[in-house]
Every structure is written in structure tokens, then in C-alpha cells.
Design goal:
single chain, 261 residues, alpha/beta, Rossmann fold, Arc Repressor Mutant, subunit A, 5-stranded parallel beta sheet, 13 helices, 58% helix, globular, sequence-specific DNA binding, HTH_AraC-typ_CS, phosphoprotein
């Protein structure tokens, strides 16, 4: 499995240094980008596609959008991404806050090459299904730890998640809240949903939102584009326009105009 890595730090020498360090490890790693702040990184995350193992290394203190805010955003939009928090700030409160927001690993500056390599290998093995690389065995072990739900409940849980997502598409996606509603571990729920539907929860929600946006444009010919975006959970007009065009093949306004052609 290919690892795709995004490095986020406001210091160019650190970004370049980390990239060189990672490439020298001989792992199956493709560096997707080097970003100087959280806003750039979030844009890159929104363009990320495919089923590869995705990892983000991010600093805490950055301009425009810091690491803490970036972590919160990524957890909302792409919870499948593994995150490594990198910082010169060794105070416990930073680490504790990061862990609460879903960071799986924490490394301090200056980065130790062996520690970073061990972290990347550990994440890759986790994605592959444990140290043996046997996904089936890993799933069974995880189920034993987490308490895998009976088959009937698994099906009901996925159906309930779909109902909750579609009940209000403009609401932010919260994996933890969804998992609590169906009494399943967040990680297990993500894997279960993908297994049952063939899609990640994030991808399913995105498709549902775009589908609703198309229906709104078809039914209300004089609606404003920013209004459509807000109704389906994308209040940022530029991002909504970009996402709609990526999935439909044309911008929302172009799609609306084509309906009267």
C-alpha cells in the first residue's frame, strides 16, 4: 500500500528537511505536498482522493490557521487521515488537547529520524491490518477488543448513520457524535460503513450534498449559488463551486443555465 504524506510547517527549511528525511527512509511514501499553513493544507486535503494510506504531519504554531484548528477541520472532513503532531512546544496541555482532537501521534522538534520512521511504519502496518499484514486477523482482533456488533445491529447502525446524515445535510459531520448515537467505536464504525456501502462516510455525505444541490438547482431556477451551498453544508461559495464542478463536470451556475437550454 502506498503512503501519501502531507507535511505542514510554516518554516520552509523544516518542511524540506522532513521531506528529505522521509524520502531517505526507503519506505513506499509519496509526498503529496509541503504546506506553509493550515489553510493551504486543508485545501490539499479536500483534493485528496483514492484509498491510499493518508498521513499528515503538522506543526502547532503557524500563521493564518494553526495546527489545532487544522486538526479539528480535518477530523470533520476527512477523519480517515492519520495525523502526527509536530511541535517544539512540549507542554502537556498541547499534547492533551491534540489527543482529544484525534491526533494519533505526537513528535517533538527537533525530529528524531528513527522515531519518525517508527511512527510511519506503525501507521502503515495498522492500515495493512497489523504487523502480520493479515487484514482478516487484524479485523478479528479489533472486533474482540472493541466488541463487534451482531450482524443485525451492524446493518441497522449503517442505516441509522445514513438517516442521520441525510436528515440535515447542512450540519457539520462529526464522527464521534455519530458513533455515540449507534453505540459503536468511531474507528469500527468508519470501517463498517465502508464495508457495507463501498464508500467512506465523508464520500457518502459529499455525494448526498451534491445530489441535493442539483435537485435545488433543478427545482428553483432563480436561487443564488451561495444559497445552494449553504443549504447543503458548504457555506464557502468558492469551495462549493470547486467541489460541484469536480463531481458534476460544470460549475453550479453553468449547470443551472444548462437546464433552460
Amino acid at each position: 500500500m502506498m503512503i501519501k504524506l502531507l507535511i505542514v510547517d510554516d518554516e520552509e527549511r523544516i518542511r524540506n528537511g522532513l521531506a528529505a528525511m522521509v524520502l531517505s527512509m526507503g519506505l513506499c511514501i509519496e509526498i503529496e505536498g509541503l504546506c506553509g499553513n493550515g489553510i493551504q493544507a486543508l485545501e490539499k486535503v479536500r483534493e485528496w482522493t483514492g484509498e491510499d494510506c493518508k498521513i499528515m504531519i503538522t506543526d502547532i504554531k503557524m500563521p493564518m490557521m494553526d495546527g489545532m484548528k487544522l486538526i479539528e477541520k480535518v477530523n470533520e472532513e476527512a477523519p480517515e487521515i492519520h495525523m502526527i503532531l509536530l511541535s517544539g512546544y512540549s507542554e502537556f496541555q498541547y499534547a492533551k488537547h491534540a489527543i482529544r482532537n484525534g491526533v494519533v501521534e505526537y513528535l517533538s522538534k527537533p525530529v528524531n529520524r528513527k522515531e519518525l520512521q517508527a511512527t510511519l511504519v506503525r501507521i502503515q502496518k495498522k492500515e495493512l491490518g497489523g504487523e502480520s499484514g493479515d487484514g482478516a486477523l487484524a479485523d478479528k482482533a479489533e472486533a474482540a477488543v472493541e466488541g463487534e456488533a451482531p450482524k443485525g445491529h451492524r446493518k441497522h447502525a449503517v442505516e441509522e448513520v445514513i438517516r442521520l446524515l441525510e436528515s440535515d445535510l447542512k450540519e457539520s459531520f462529526d464522527l464521534l457524535a455519530l458513533s455515540e448515537k449507534v453505540n459503536l467505536n468511531p474507528s469500527y464504525l468508519s470501517k463498517l460503513f465502508k464495508k457495507e456501502t463501498g464508500k467512506t462516510i465523508t464520500d457518502y455525505l459529499m455525494e448526498a450534498r451534491i445530489s441535493k444541490a442539483r435537485r435545488i438547482l433543478e427545482e428553483y431556477r432563480d436561487v443564488k449559488m451561495y444559497e445552494v451551498g449553504s443549504l447543503v453544508g458548504y457555506p464557502d461559495p468558492m469551495y462549493f463551486n470547486k467541489l460541484f464542478k469536480k463531481h458534476v463536470g460544470m460549475a453550479p451556475k453553468e449547470y443551472q443555465d444548462s437546464l433552460s437550454g
